[in-house]
Write a structure and sequence with these properties.
By secondary structure, the chain is of the alpha+beta class. Helices cover 35% and strands 21% of the residues. A 6-stranded antiparallel beta sheet has the order 1-2-5-6-3-4. The mean pLDDT is 85.
């Protein structure tokens, strides 16, 4: 009787050890490059669709804000929305020219933004760093003396990451500019 119990204990022990040692092993999966490419393509397509959805929501938010404010904006291919108030001059700034501009900007909820807000700024279009990337594009729409109000999507303003502690992630910026001077 003891020998049967000892045998059963030893057999149970070996079965237990065998079962435990195989738990951590993974089954080999055949390497299929076509399946891996399909998976990567699927993930990439999902990311593209999420970005399209976000851009559509951002555009709708900008259009709604513009309509609520009574603005009659035009938009560029990059998503910049603007309304020009022109002067008598018809010589818009060009890439490479120095410009002086007065500007203010805020979040769509009306929160004013610091950092050059209400200041006069000067930079060389497409060559010097302007406070916001979209100001390069906006400056090329203006002649000396012109002013405009604008809505700038996140990718032309503070980027999708925003500005820590001041500008939230993916924020659209609203503002006004006046082109003071265009220098050669």
């Amino acid at each position: 009787m003891r020998s049967i119990a000892a045998f059963c204990s030893i057999a149970a022990f070996f079965l237990f050890v065998t079962a435990c040692s195989s738990c951590g092993q993974q089954q080999e999966v055949a390497f299929d490059p076509l399946e891996q490419q399909k998976h990567r393509d699927s993930l990439e397509q999902q990311q593209i669709e999420r970005q399209r959805s976000y851009l559509k929501m951002e555009r709708e938010r900008m259009e709604s804000f513009s309509a609520d404010q009574g603005w009659q904006t035009l938009s560029t291919g990059t998503g910049l929305h603007y309304e020009l108030f022109t002067s008598d001059q018809d010589r818009p700034a060009k890439s490479g020219q120095w410009v002086r501009m007065h500007w203010t900007h805020k979040l769509l909820d009306g929160t004013p933004l610091n950092g050059n807000n209400g200041d006069t700024i000067q930079w060389r279009i497409d060559e010097e760093q302007a406070p916001l990337l979209g100001l390069h594009e906006l400056a090329k729409l203006l002649s000396a003396g012109d002013s405009a109000r604008f809505l700038m999507p996140a990718h032309l303003a503070y980027g999708v990451a925003g500005k820590s502690g001041e500008v939230p992630v993916r924020s659209v910026i609203a503002g006004r500019v006046k082109m003071l001077q265009i220098l050669p």
